[in-house]
Amino acid sequence: MIMHDLFLPTPLPLLSCGIAIMLGSIAWRRSIRRNLSIGLVTLLLALVSVGSHIGAAPVDGAALFLQDRWAVYTAGLVGFSALCILLMSWRDMSGPRADTGTGPHIGMRTDPRTDPSIGAPNATLNATPAGASSGTLDSTSIGDEYSLLVLLGTLGAFAMVYAANFMPFFLGLEILGISLPGLIAYRQGHAMQACEAAMKYLILSGVSSAILLFGIGLAYAATGSLRFGLPVAGNGIPPLVAMAATVMILAGMFFKLSAVPFHMWLPDVMQGAPVPVAAFMAVVSKIAIFSSLVRYFSMGHAPPFLDTLLYGVIVLTILVGNLLALRQTSLTRLMACSSIAHMGYLLIAFYSPGPLQPGTLGAYLAAYTASTLGVFAAINAFATPDGTDGTTILDWKGLFFSRPFLATAMALMLLSLAGIPPGIGFFAKFEIMATGMDHHRGLLLLVLVAGSIMGLYYYLNIIRLMMVPPSLPAIRRGPGASPELTALIIVLSMIVVVGGLFPAFIIHPLFPAYQPGPPPAAVPTQRLTPESM
Amino acid sequence: MSPLAALVLLPVLGGGLAWVLDHPRLGAALRLRDGAWRMSMLTLVLETALLALVTFRHPTPAGPWLAHFYRPWVPPLGIAVRLDMDGLSLALIWLSLVLSLACVGVATRQVTYHAGVFHCLLLATLGGIIGTFLATDLFLFFFFWELMLVPMFVLIAVWGHENRQYAAMKFLVFTQGSGLIMLLSILGLVIAHYRVTGVLTFDYFTLAATPLPPMSSMVLMTGFFIAFAVKLPAVPLHVWLPDAHTQAPTAASVLLAGILLKTGGYGMIRFNVMLFPDAAARLAPIAMGLGIAGILYGAWLSCNQRDLKRLIAYSSISHMGFVLLGIFSGSSMGVQGAVIQMLAHGLGTGALFLIAGAIGERMHTRDMQVIGGLWRVMPRLSGTGLFFAVASLGMPGLGNFAGEFLVLLAIWPVSPLMGALAAIGLVLASVYSLRMVNSIFLAAPRPEPIAGADFGARQMVVFACIMAFLVVLGLYPQPFMTFSTPSPLPVAAGAATRSNAP
């Protein structure tokens, strides 16, 4: 590419540089902490620079990337989430866990706290062989590439968010898709499960990418352009080709988004993955793909045949996601199902374009990000080096008595996800309803209400469990969470509460200037990150 | 700061302080026993003083709205913090405060298990309820409506009786779920208003002037009605109530029965009848039918209970049936009767729950056949119980009678059959009330001695106050009737609503 029409949003080269530096540092001498620090600094820089770019945008709109409000906003969310996730992984990676080998699981069984009714038998059974295998791994090698893969995945997500062309979009998707299996397999102490999940993700994501690629090919055949947007069949091309292209691209995207007919993989994979990686999948990759989905539809009018299709997908996604979540015993699995349901709610707003839509999407994404990250941070903080990893719901019993701060934070996040004030999720759900009402999506909103009632049940069930008084007098469980996790939880709780009480901050930046048509490539962007809330 | 905002915030702040004061080290440092209890008592006294200030100063006697508070909240969506107080809200807030004072005065000092959190949640619920009574921005109303449920859920789930977790979940799922339907209705109304005028607002007074086609106003009103009917509760939607009331700790039962149910009645008056008068008139036969069903069904089930708290809970359903009947009778007398009935039921049933809690604390059971014959041992407790049981059956001269009588009077011209059926409810009321009195207080005493003291002076003072209120309400309800009439909407809005009537 010739230098003078180079247009690159700054985070992309920044992240690439960071990755290169990290590779060099690994080649020089392995150090988990140094790599984590490089990762954190890079992500911080990327987050600060989401609104800036290198070079001038081409006037004809034929750029590979564009950087409008929407892209900047979602990129900010992606960067913030990746930062949080790397912070969450800090202790897992650099802490003493890798050295303890099989110790934890023996300790877990003899621990008087975990009476047989609490400890889920599978977890213990699965843990034993896996723990043994983790002991054989060299503890110094674990975690070194972890931050590299997180950075790589974030790079992919950034590329997708900024993409204005199928090429960077697909490249970003693949970079994200390649780094995830590696991350998933990082779960210590559950190597078998993690490998299974990684394989599952690798294969299914490969299939969906293939479908997506086929769709892109068809779109190119129909329009002769790789511009990221709904294909409009040119002259002489049967409209069926454009239609097939749209359907295949949508199928691929829905697969990554885990909308319902394509949702099966998410609970399994998230359950197998380490907790921070599960958060990465639930937040970063979902935001990236959702952002692209909005971009894809924002450049043109959706053909009418999509209406029924989307309607069906939304209804199914909400209902099935919530129904699946009702009877889960694993917290990460429950979060996966609830994340499916939340994508369904988001799709309602996505499906109702109008003056309210940008604010709604922004608010909902922010709410979903903050609350989901909060839940995962709490799970991470709950895990003790010699106890459970916090993914079994029954382990949370009586937490209000043993660790009141953590339990309060967790309850706040769950309330926010359930859409109860004062959490930010309440306002977000309210906005979704307002947007849907504006479009007379009566049926969809009734489905949303039904889904929310189910959601109330399973979210509050966890809170209820946390409030069951322990049969033994409350034991303060070891030392509390590590300081970085505590800080993270406090920051996220503040976002959730302040965002819920003063929601004007979140929706304000997105409201005034949003054009559903092709947005001008280089709007003088206003920087917006979740911290500014 | 405006007194209205202070009224809402004070309980929440006081609750927070109570939580802090309960910290053992802090309590030891201050040499303070029962720090949380003292703090909440102080908060309630301050709140009462504030309310008295609002009640008795008359800076602007021009309109029916006594006080007003406004501050923008989410300007892009036209959401504002908007609080207004008229006679109806004022009366219900007085009821809330009297009951909370009684509650804290009698029942919560014994709570030792995480007392700070308990008082904090109790006061937070109170704050939410007061906010609900004051909010005139629909979003804010909904915010408070949802906000008061979570602390109540925790109160039931942690401090309740044996089956508390189940009851708490049921309570929350029912009330929150119906709340979401109301939210849909609120949004429908707002969007309809936006379509017509191009102004996005959640202001109650502005929205009241929205011209609506009859069909959509019916749909929107039904959405509101469902949420309020769950809270009130009206009969097919009442299933959460017996469990929640029975399983909740005493103080929470009092708040639930005494005030929380009244938010349903308040909402019906303020948001069903006054926002959608025509649709409400069309729904009236169904609503009144539900009211009758509630009166008879609640009373019938109440006659067959052995569990004392469950009996009182079912009697609440029966009494709230009269409220529903009165609100939808279509006459201002019916609404006045409903308001009197709400006040009287709040005081009477609140006191009954306090007594049931006191009995439960002394006898460790709620089974009426096990309790038996308290009169000999605890004459003061039994006398108080007898008074409130008689109030509950509608003895002339007490508040419930005034309310029920007004409702019956209002319903008679509408439909004599309904009047007759509702009157049967009164007969059943005397059956269950007297059955309760018989088996608890008057039956033969149990052979083994009963441990536990009779009511002391403090309790008797509290109950005497409630009794005095009930007697005044029964003997001289006129000032309450004129005072607590809901303010009509501003003239312009009212005229617009009327002119848009089909």
From TrEMBL, chain B:
UniProt keyword annotations, A-Z: Membrane, Transmembrane, Transmembrane helix
Any one GO cellular component localisation term in the record: membrane
Q: How does it sit in the membrane?
A: Multi-pass membrane protein
Q: State one molecular function term (GO).
A: NADH dehydrogenase activity
Location comes to: Endomembrane system; Membrane
The reply on keyword Cell inner membrane is no
Similarity comment text for this entry = Belongs to the complex I subunit 4 family.
Q: What is this protein called?
A: NADH-quinone oxidoreductase subunit M
Classification of source organism: Bacteria, Pseudomonadati, Pseudomonadota, Alphaproteobacteria, Acetobacterales
